[in-house]
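As a warm-up, study this chain.
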Amino acid sequence: MFDHWGNHGAALLAGCAIVALAMAPSAAQAQCRSNPLGGFSGPCNALATSPASTAVGESAAAQGVGATAFGQFSTAAGSEAAAFGQRSNATGNSVALGALSTASAANSVALGTNSVANADNTVSVGSVGNERGIVNVSAGALAAGSTDAVNGGQLLTANQQAAAVFGGGAGLDGGGQLTVPSYAIQGTTYNNVGSALGALNAAVGGSSTYVKVNGTGAAASATGTNAVALGVGAQATNTNAFAAGTGALASGANSIAIGTNALATGSVAVGNGASAANGGGAFGDFATATGGTANVSSATAVGNSSSATTANAVAVGQSASVQAANATAVGANTVVQASATNSVAIGQGSVASAPNTVSFGSAGNERRLTNVAAGVGPTDAVNMGQLSSMASGLQSQVNGLQSQVNQVNQRVDVANSGVAMAMALSGGALADQKKFAVAMNYGTFQGQSAMALSSYMRVTDQVVVSGGLGYGVGASQFGGRVGVQFSW
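Now compare it with the structure written out below.
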């Protein structure tokens, strides 16, 4: 092994494996030569060009303060960038781990061979068309404000618990989704809990019989016809209402409120603190505060602190907010403002502020819409390829039209030049008693000018012949005339 120190850097060579370290504001570059006999041949450059940078491997390059490049042809270009693996590439403060992996966006991470991370603050485990599943994910913390990832087992457990609560043959389909329960009471089949319990109450003691679960707090109260209340302080106060959970309140007809302090008024609310009204739906995690609020006809809110406050509004995502009728917001912190009726906001932080629009971002945080198919119908979106093609065709037509206009202008100039030439050729005459005369004349018309040379000859006392040659200066055209004059 050969060690070389200089210019506050270090280069370590072993065969064709290179280590280059830069420990001060200088560059350390290592080259090695090796052959089967133990000698050295052929360069294998490892380059570390900035303080605290490290490059390991043939042609590895670390080109930023604190940058690290490990692997043949690996490149870490940028402060704190890290590239691990053959031909891996990391820019900025990103990390690329795996052969041929690329992390090109700020604060991004690419994991695995051929993985690509090209969006800021993201972690990629594959690339377009080469996606990977993430396995062996530990259970995420289910708590307010938690940003942990949850695994399939957690979702499956939640669905299994729900199926177990519903009973009646409720289970999970092949995709892990809940299947509808079936309750047979006195020969009649019911597929929802409220109707089944109402029928059961009627069977055992009359339609006014209530089902209650007592605890150390306030008793459950079911005061509506065929209503059901389960849980400390739960209340079902209207026809076919169902309330389950401490403090749950189902106050509208056919309402379902499930979860601590869930509130349903003629609607469905599932989740701790979930609230829905007038045919709306609010859904959240059964174990944590992930419910939302929906308090206008047919509104739906899904997500922690989500809010759908207008008719037919849909808000999906943490803190998603819809303030306009018939509007939809999908994504954390998305907003549809009150003036934006019939609008859609898609993506984290997107804002829709005008009616009948679709927003994919907000002012200063715009997004590109990619992979758009070529439009076909009159109201389809067009992509950049179509627009460029149309612009090219339009430019071709404009060029053709300009050529025609130029030709017309040229012809007009020629015509005006002819008028000027005719005016020049018309001048001059043969004086009486003279045999021969020559005249030179100049004519101009509409910006065009011409010169003419004419001659006159008296053949007899009664006959004069004449001729002339004209030249249009601007149009570079020649013209001429001949004539005979008889007099008596």
